[in-house]
Amino acid sequence: MNAPDLPPLEYPHAEPPPPGATIEVARGLHWLRMPLPFSLNHINLWLIREADGFCLIDTGYGDAPTRALWETHFASTLAALPIRRIVATHYHPDHLGNAAWLAERFSCSVFMTHSEFMTAHAVHDERAGFAPSDFGTLFAQHGMAPEQVAALAARGNLYRRGVARVPARYSRIVDNDRIPAGGYEWRVIVGRGHSPEHAALYSEAAGVLVSGDMLLPKITTNVSVPPSDPDSDSLARFLASQEAFAALPATTLVLPSHGLPFRGIHSRIDFLRLHHDERLAELQAAVRTAGASVSAADVIPVLFRRELDLQQRFFAMGEAIAHLNRLWHAGRISRLHAGGGAVRFAA
Question: Could you tell me the pTM of the whole model?
Fold first, then answer.
């Protein structure tokens, strides 16, 4: 990958705000950071000052440490003013975890796309192919060892640990909707591949993109295949979604959910394209030289060159299936169905 040839990203802020504090990254737009109980140990949230309160983008993981930190912000950052509306970029627990709690506290609406709202309920209620057992079945079909499948099952429904309650109602947003907040107009840009209908927000007047998980400065966004759609070409959808971001001005300040705010949106998109092209080429070469058909579990070492814990292996399996499906849909490898529902790939 010719990453050194790409212009480096620029970081206006060298450090994140400390717990309980914020940084104003644009007029009336405040950055706060909340902890996560994972190896990825933080999420960035965004508060937009309104005349009579705040608009909040994403809510943090629904656990006691995050809610204790929210109590600090209620007294200091919000200065007793209410949250007037919540925008959830997508259904993942670090983004939606406190939405119901905050909406109830402030009697406000939660704005999100239809697919994200329905998927949140499906995962929480273990319906429509989103139960832990459904993931276990998918991963077993793709070669995950029985003891690892059993270990995943033993964890139960982790989503409920981060999202105790899903909002019972919502205000629907769709691609290209306009949301007024803080004297700016924010255009909804829907992206796919990381989640079904992820909503990023762009303000031309502010020169700001709240990118959620669709565009991150350091790590690459997880792109997986869900059990409900096992033939999905999630990676193609993710890469196609980048086209909307590539059309934004080079000066755009990108506010990601993880990492530091940055400028250099086109450089980052070019890097992601090169990265996935390289990974796909390596994966295709590994399938060709295997001498026999391979499973997604077999090729994890090609994509991830480090030891993985159980949670990381969960994401790695989804990534491996997504990359193999991309090669299969592109006609670069074949997909085979073996006995017992096993899925394998060959040159």
Answer: 0.96
